[in-house]
Design goal:
The protein is built from 10 helices and 5 strands; from the N terminus they run ααβαββαβαβααααα. By secondary structure, it is α+β, with helices and mostly antiparallel strands. A 5-stranded mixed β-sheet has the order 4-1-3-2-5, with helices on both faces. The two termini are 36 Å apart.
Length: 261
């Protein structure tokens, strides 16, 4: 009778199995990318203490300056649009830097030194270059090649009209419409050099203002209870899905007559 060969258990555990994390890490090393890229898109109100909208752009420039040196090879890219009363921020950054930026923003709001308030996160995408490269070629790279901000030269909506702003669309539909507008804008600006960015956006505002997401709709999203702040959104995003069933807290544990399928 032929004997059955049983492999050594140590060899089983030492077998060179390649995980998905190994593949992603190796891809990041090839492009000199030390961290997994995240994209956070959020909206907020301009803090009442801001006298000059340029203060908002200067605040984020100073905040990002230290991350450029600390996370070399994983630079911060994106676009900050400053509306008359609101801001819309697309931020592409590594996970470690993103956590620090969100904590810094939370601390500034606590100390009443923030330039923006009432932040609402629209979406947070992890590992942009991996998740979307087989679905949408455009998303295989960053939406922007650098970070910049622009103060939109547009007429401000009257405060009364802003307070009465409403929409018949569900919040989830409005969020998708906002993301589509951002995608369309980034496709338009992706090949524009940084030195020509401001003039390109000014031309867009003048000739095609409908391509920018409306101020009134931003106000509706900010008043919605269905959206949460960047800190809360991030906590929910990374929270483990530990679901406890009722039968797991019952003793003795129920026995099934038939085995599971």
């Amino acid at each position: 009778m032929a004997s059955i060969h049983r492999p050594d258990s140590a060899l089983i555990y030492d077998s060179p199995n390649i995980s998905l994390l190994d593949i992603i890490t190796e891809k990041n090393k090839i492009v000199n990318k030390r961290q997994i890229l995240h994209r956070l898109i959020y909206i907020a109100r301009i803090a009442p203490t801001v006298n000059n909208k340029k203060e908002i752009g200067d605040y984020f420039q100073n905040l990002f300056r230290k991350y450029v040196t600390d996370f070399e090879g994983d630079g911060i890219t994106g676009l900050l649009l400053v509306y008359p009363y609101h801001v819309m921020h697309i931020l592409e950054v590594s996970s470690e830097a993103l956590n620090d930026i969100i904590k810094e923003q939370e601390l500034s709001e606590t100390n009443n030194t923030a330039v923006i308030s009432n932040t609402k996160a629209l979406t947070l995408i992890s590992d942009v270059s991996y998740q979307f490269e087989k679905i949408i070629t455009y998303y295989a790279n960053r939406m922007f090649s650098y970070w910049s901000y622009h103060i939109l030269e547009m007429p401000a909506i009257q405060v009364n009209d802003l307070a009465n702003a409403n929409s018949n669309e569900p919040i989830d539909v409005m969020v998708l419409q906002c993301l589509r507008a951002i995608t369309k804008l980034s496709k338009h600006l992706v090949k524009v050099p940084e030195i020509n960015l401001h003039s390109a956006i000014d031309v867009l505002v003048e000739k095609s203002p409908g391509d920018l997401y409306p101020q009134s709709d931003i106000e509706v999203l900010l008043r919605s209870n269905e959206l949460c702040g960047a800190v809360e959104y991030q906590e929910k995003y990374y929270a483990p899905l530990n679901i406890i069933l009722d039968e797991e807290v019952v003793w003795p544990m129920p026995r099934r007559i038939f085995p599971p399928n």
